[in-house]
């Protein structure tokens, strides 16, 4: 457990309001940056982090596991940064209670922290496999720095990864690179079934099989077998097969962490419910990130978390004119040598345009000649071009015949005529 800092600056501590931030993840860190930019002397700030680390980038855990970076390389906000900003940082001691009537929070180590404003950024927890044996030794998640350290310390092992989403694929590929025998179990017919169509998902599977990764598709985990001493030894599938395993990585989604808010009497559904200003029904308490529910939606990507942080910071800075409105966010896969890009709704009514080449695959969905969604696999060099068209919602009638070929073939007509004149001259 550590604690650092007290706010420095032109204002006197007694004149400042008290802001307590529960959570020290990426959403909380981005909010602190925004708040310090907008109102550097408005609050005495205390941050309480459950983990013993300063701020780090969870998105980079996959490259860290894969050996493409190190722990200093994923640190975004060092202990020194908090000291320099005059922020008190308490790590390794989670908040255990919120006293809304007295406006204070209490930590496991006994800190009693009064607040004028409270920000909840408690994040999410890995979803546990809903089967017998999920609590055995050797059943782990891939969610934080502790998980990565544990996985990096493994001797060559038989590993089964359950879940064919982004996290499961990134973990499986990284572990394969460390010499482990890795099998990935996925309940659906193709990988990344929420982000890719079947053609792209099949290509992805084939490319990863070429690297040595094994797959068991359309299979559900029915249970985990142990050796009689509490250690996992096999994954039991619902069709009767068993996969030998020294370690099982569960990557089957996340669950907003809402227990603290619920205990405090805040409204909780799928997540901590907030309005468009990221405020709970208690006007002194705000919430951002993977722990929240906004308009019946929860969140797992970084981009909306950062937008929430910016909106919330403006209200905490008492410059409250902004509102949070969710917009779809493109997704990318972080596996070296494999480029995947997806956004919007690529299935449904409308016209489907596809292009299959040895080095790539493109699928575009148009409705009324407007781009509604896409999947790019392999060559993603035109991703920004397509994303811009998707966000603009412009009529693409003039480019329909050449749209799949990318930006270079979709120049405005006047540019083409000018180019021809220059060539003729």
From TrEMBL:
Keywords assigned: FAD, Flavoprotein
Cofactor(s) listed: FAD
Keyword Ribonucleoprotein set for record: no
GO molecular-function terms, A-Z: oxidoreductase activity
Entries under PROSITE patterns matching the protein: PROKAR_LIPOPROTEIN
FAD/NAD(P)-binding domain sequence ranges: 18-296
NADH-rubredoxin oxidoreductase C-terminal domain location: 331-385
Superkingdom field: Bacteria
Keyword Flavoprotein: yes
Family: Belongs to the FAD-dependent oxidoreductase family.
Protein name (database record): Nitrite reductase family protein
Source organism (scientific name): Alcanivorax hongdengensis A-11-3
């Amino acid at each position: 457990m550590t604690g650092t800092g007290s706010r420095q600056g032109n204002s006197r501590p007694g004149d400042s309001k008290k802001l307590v931030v529960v959570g020290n993840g990426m959403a909380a860190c981005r909010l602190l940056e925004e708040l310090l930019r907008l109102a550097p002397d408005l609050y005495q700030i205390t941050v309480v982090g459950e983990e013993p680390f300063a701020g780090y980038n969870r998105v980079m855990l996959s490259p860290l596991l894969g050996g493409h970076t190190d722990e200093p390389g994923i640190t975004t906000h060092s202990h020194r940064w908090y000291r320099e900003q005059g922020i008190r940082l308490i790590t390794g001691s989670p908040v255990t209670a919120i006293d809304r009537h007295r406006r204070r929070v209490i930590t496991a180590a006994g800190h009693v922290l009064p607040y004028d404003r409270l920000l909840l950024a408690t994040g999410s927890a890995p979803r546990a496999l809903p089967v017998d044996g999920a609590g055995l030794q050797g059943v782990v998640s891939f969610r934080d720095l502790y998980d990565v350290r544990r996985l990096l310390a493994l001797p060559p092992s038989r590993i089964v990864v359950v879940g064919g989403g982004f996290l499961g694929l990134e973990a499986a590929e990284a572990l394969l690179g460390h010499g482990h025998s890795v099998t990935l179990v996925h309940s659906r017919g193709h990988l990344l079934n929420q982000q890719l169509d079947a053609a792209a998902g099949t290509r992805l599977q084939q490319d990863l099989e070429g690297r040595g990764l094994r797959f068991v598709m359309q299979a559900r985990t029915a249970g985990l077998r142990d050796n009689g001493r509490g250690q996992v030894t096999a994954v039991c599938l619902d069709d009767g097969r068993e996969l030998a395993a020294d370690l099982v990585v569960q990557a089957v989604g996340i669950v907003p962490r809402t227990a603290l808010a619920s205990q405090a009497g805040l409204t909780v559904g799928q997540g901590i419910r907030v309005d468009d200003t990221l405020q709970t029904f208690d006007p002194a308490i705000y919430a951002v990130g993977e722990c929240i529910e906004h308009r019946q939606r929860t969140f797992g990507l970084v981009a909306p978390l950062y937008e929430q942080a910016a909106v919330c910071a403006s209200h905490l800075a008492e410059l409250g004119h902004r509102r949070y409105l969710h917009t779809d966010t493109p997704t990318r896969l972080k596996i070296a040598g494999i480029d995947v890009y997806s956004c919007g709704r690529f299935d449904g009514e409308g016209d489907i345009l596809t292009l299959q080449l040895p080095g790539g695959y493109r699928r575009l969905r148009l409705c009324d000649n407007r781009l509604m969604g896409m999947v790019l696999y392999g060559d993603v060099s035109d991703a920004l071009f397509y994303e811009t068209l998707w966000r603009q919602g412009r009529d693409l009638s003039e480019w329909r015949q050449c749209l799949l070929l990318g930006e270079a073939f979709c120049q405005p007509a006047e540019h083409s005529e000018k180019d021809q004149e220059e060539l003729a001259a």
